[in-house]
Amino acid sequence: MRELRVIDETESGDAVAEAVREGLLAYPKTLPPWLFYDEQGSALFEQITALPEYYLTRMERELLHRHGREIAAGRDEWRRMSVVELGAGSAQKTAWLLRALDAEGRGISYLPMDISATALREAEEQLGREFPQLRLRPVLTDFMRERPTLPIDAEAQRLLLWLGSSAGNFEMEDAVKILRDASAEMREGDLLLLGLDGAPEANGRETDKKISDLLRAYDDAAGVTAAFNRNLLKRMGRELGAEFCVEQFEHEARWNGRTSCVEMHLVSKIAQSVFVRELERSFDFQAGESIHTENSRKFTRDEARALVAAAGFSTVKSWHDPDGWYGLYLGQRV
Length: 334
Ligand SMILES: C[S@@+](CC[C@H](N)C(=O)[O-])C[C@H]1O[C@@H](n2cnc3c(N)ncnc32)[C@H](O)[C@@H]1O
Fold this sequence. Notes:
Elements: H1 9-25, E1 29-30, H2 39-49, H3 55-72, E2 80-86, H4 94-103, E3 107-114, H5 117-130, E4 135-136, E5 139-140, E6 156-162, H6 172-182, E7 191-197, H7 211-217, H8 224-240, E8 249-256, E9 261-268, E10 272-276, E11 281-285, E12 290-297, H9 301-310, E13 313-320, E14 326-333
Parallel strand pairs: 1-12, 2-3, 2-6, 3-4, 3-5, 6-7
Antiparallel strand pairs: 7-14, 8-9, 9-12, 10-11, 13-14
Helix pairs in contact: 2-8, 3-4
The structure holds S-adenosylmethionine.
S-adenosylmethionine binds next to helix 2.
């Protein structure tokens, strides 16, 4: 794989151990969402994106397909476009935007960044096949822990992407910091495109989205999201010798109206003590006690625009599906 910096095994192993120790000692217990994305987790996430209940991918793909040309239309003084994507995953949706850029006839370079080597490998394989001219430079990184250094191309307009409503998996101050770090060298006229899932209906808001629609997206009938969540327990078993009995934990999606988040939890069905060999200690669970594994924040349009502004961009346009469930927000560097 070209230009893919492989995170040193011991370094990433230490990070996993440290995150698990810290999270399971916290009260309430919690684990950071980047832990989902080992090889198995990334494959399960791909399956989630194809689920009928997981409308986010479908709607975002449709918006990128429909409005890609408008997003891609740059200013004449830039002959090239440099697309940098945070948490690109396998980049299957991004292909729609790359097609539109390709049709504009501008040279494109694409830097997908992700913590998952498997997802980046898949992105490289698929995009390399479809776009042989594309300058593709995958970057394996944890953008929470390190500020990515990006190549500068004076003749290219830069487009920073953060799709899949992934910004909603972070505390807002962390999401702003990640965006500011990744856009530190961007110049006037460079672009930011955020894909953000909308908040449910309330006080006459412009959508009929129900909390039940949101919860279904994170607790599908086929149980794929449950398997994705439980994979965390399996990963701790594989990498840290943790003796979790996966069947003794229930997958649960909850709506938190105060934070406007769908939360994912792993709830212990019984009182139990779990030994983690690498950490040389046990962790106790009460019956009904949960590990909080993910927040997925849902944004009103004002909150989405406020995030674009906090990152240092002014919102120039937004596009929404006909029911107003999902939004793409385009910002320009001011
Ligand atoms: C919700 S998925 C979205 C994937 C894809 N952009 C999409 O829209 O389908 C989040 C992606 O962000 C990556 N990710 C999560 N935390 C990360 C971190 N701290 N650093 C780098 N990548 C991260 C995951 O590996 C995963 O591919």
